[in-house]
Design brief:
263 residues, alpha/beta, 22% strand
Length: 263
């Protein structure tokens, strides 16, 4: 599995802890009913998983992630929810029995997302659901314009691809699902929008920190893709954007809901 571009720095987990079913899996809500079972792959610190667990109780919900450290974070925050380390390519726990198999912002980081979707399909019961949502970095839009933020986006996409991922995954989800053998697929799209003073401070602040202190910053410098000074300038651009009265940022996501074959 390729390395996780973002890493698990506090600035990354700050973003992940904000995520809920409402803001990150709303496309799936009409399929959520008490008593259903759900496998949440790439669960991170577990906020979406815990939200699923509350909505599906008394159904079984399990969150898995490849990082033991972040699983420890999830277990500590949500002791009432089941979490364990796991590999999306090796889904062997109660294989073929889950009502819903879900992944949020996972496929973009994988070198073989089609194989991952095939594994998710096998993990779902016949007639069950495989659901995925991923951002599409090339579609990100913001105002006011800043060449340093344009450089940020190009640098991120470059590093994500070096790490074996596809940062523009959102536009590929339908195609990947077709290649994985799904016949019944419902594609959709949705956005995160950060435009209020509070939203701008949060979004701009976490990206400013990521570009100077997280895994992606260390990799950029180590591999000679950016200098410390350039990353500091990009962080300054994020802070400037966050304080702009007319600051606006939109993150486009692709989504798929796939029905597992009956046989």
């Amino acid at each position: 599995m390729p390395s996780y571009t973002h890493g698990h720095h506090e600035s990354v987990l700050r973003s992940h802890r904000w995520r809920t079913v409402e803001n990150s899996a709303a496309y799936l809500t009409r399929h959520l009913h008490p008593g259903l079972t759900l496998l949440d792959i790439g669960c991170g610190p577990g906020t979406i998983t815990a939200d699923f667990a509350a909505r599906l109780a008394p159904g079984r919900v399990l969150g898995i992630d490849s990082s033991a450290d972040v699983i420890d974070v999830a277990k500590s925050a949500y002791p009432e929810v089941a979490f364990r380390t796991g590999d999306v390519y090796l889904l062997d726990d109660r294989d073929g029995s889950w009502d819903i198999v879900h992944a949020h912002q996972l496929l973009q980081h994988l070198s073989d997302p089609v194989a991952a979707l095939k594994a998710m399909r096998r993990a779902a019961r016949p007639g069950g659901i495989v659901a995925a949502r991923d951002s599409d970095y090339a579609s990100f839009a913001w105002h006011p314009g800043d060449e340093r933020l344009t450089r940020w986006l190009a640098l991120y996409r470059e590093i994500a691809r070096v790490n074996g991922g596809e940062p523009d995954a959102g536009r590929h989800l339908l195609s990947w699902a077709q290649q994985a053998g799904f016949g019944q697929i419902t594609p959709s799209a949705s956005v995160w929008c950060f435009a209020t003073p509070e939203e701008r401070a949060w979004w701009g602040g976490l990206w400013a920190d990521r570009m100077t202190t997280s895994t992606i910053a260390h990799q950029a410098v180590r591999e000679g893709r950016a200098t410390v000074d350039e990353l500091a300038s990009i962080a300054d651009a994020w802070r400037a954007w966050s304080t702009a009265a007319d600051g606006w940022f939109a993150v486009l996501h692709g989504e798929i809901i796939c029905t597992a074959p009956a046989s």
